[in-house]
DNA sequence: CTCCATATGTTATTCTATAACAGTTATGCG
DNA sequence: CGCATAACTGTTATAGAATAACATATGGAG
């Protein structure tokens, strides 16, 4: 559980930009960017890692923004539905989207050492999977692509002499 | 929750073959294919669909093979670790592998209508994702690829006139 | 103002998963 | 054989993830 993206950068910048993008998107689409929703996105952006719903809920509770699970889940549902965050199925956790607005099929690189998560692009509907689906008569609407492995930092720690 | 593979076939056959393959693999690798493990694989093969750990546990309990969650989870862990079954992260459920022995990177087609799951091949480590990982210095060890959509049957039901 | 949609608050429950420890069986080795 | 050890099972307890159901508030649209 550490920085992220696997490359150091200014978190404040990406947080500020992402919040601004979310504000703009909500204004444009008449979406209700309420305090709870805003705060949850801030938490995800600030944590800059995959966070469990209950971890987020703890903070909301401390801040008087809601004490029960549905409060957190509703906000997370909103963020996911609007592309501001993604769910990492493998971790049962959520992470802020690092490039919203861009239409994308997200793929994730999950480090099994430090649980850091990087978001990448992938179009699984094309390529082998798409072909297999078509052959089976299956219509792909959405895809979960999550690679588990080791990030540069953890690889370096594990095998310093390589 | 229905048949599977999206194509009708003789379940008895695939069940018998898969059990035989598991027996052989365990014998060859000195793995302990105990009654609980055997029974859980049978259940997965017989159900021929993604099954929750607690659904399996219910049956084990009825049959006097174990009443507590760890019993089911341990057996499932064994089956997954040895390639006899896979976990469907999206459903928090487990499914028997339809072609064990073959080394493979499984990908799944999950129907959101009936929850049927078909197993396909995919090599996400190649292609776009592999390139992105390499660029990030990330070493992929394993990947979860799950496509959500509609199977032929559910597509037909939903849009009979298409 | 009233109705309706949207969002929040709360209770309760279900499902998923694992930690921790106790007992039991199987196996290998001296 | 007898013992040590590893592997497996049994059980208790708890943590974590998710949602159903219903109550309340709030903010427009007509």
Model description:
The structure is a homodimer of 162-residue chains. Helix content of chain A is 44%, strand content 19%. Chain A has 162 residues and is of the alpha+beta class. The first copy, chain A, has six helices and five strands. In chain A, strands 4-3-5 form a three-stranded mixed sheet. A two-stranded antiparallel sheet of chain A has the order 1-2. Chain A has a single domain (11-158), classed as Arc Repressor Mutant, subunit A, CATH 1.10.10.10. Strand 5 (139-150) of chain A pairs antiparallel with strand 5 of chain B. The structure holds a DNA duplex (30 and 30 nucleotides).
Structural class of the secondary structure composition of chain A? Answer: alpha+beta
What percentage of the residues of chain A does DSSP assign to strands (E)? 15-25%
| Strand order, sheet with most strands of chain A | 4-3-5
Q: Which geometry of chain A do the CA atoms define?
A: globular
Structure annotation, total helices of chain A: 6
Stretches of chain A where pLDDT is under 50 for at least 5 consecutive residues are: none
- Gross CATH architecture of chain A: Orthogonal Bundle
> Main interface pair?
A-B, 38 and 38 residues
Could you name the CATH topology of chain A? Arc Repressor Mutant, subunit A
């Amino acid at each position: 559980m550490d920085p992220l993206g696997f490359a150091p950068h200014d978190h404040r910048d990406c947080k500020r930009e992402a919040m601004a993008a979310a504000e703009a998107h909500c204004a444009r689409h008449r979406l209700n960017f309420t305090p709870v929703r805003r705060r949850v996105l801030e938490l995800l952006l600030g944590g800059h890692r995959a966070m469990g719903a209950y971890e987020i809920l703890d903070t909301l509770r401390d801040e008087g923004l809601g004490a029960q699970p549905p409060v957190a889940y509703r906000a997370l549902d909103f963020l996911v539905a609007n592309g501001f965050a993604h769910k990492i199925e493998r971790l049962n956790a959520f992470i802020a989207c690092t490039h919203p607005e861009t239409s994308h099929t997200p793929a994730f690189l999950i480090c099994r050492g430090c649980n850091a998560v990087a978001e990448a692009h992938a179009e699984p509907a094309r390529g082998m999977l798409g072909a297999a689906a078509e052959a089976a008569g299956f219509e792909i609407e959405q895809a979960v692509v999550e690679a588990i492995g080791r990030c540069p930092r953890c690889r370096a720690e594990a095998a310093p002499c390589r």
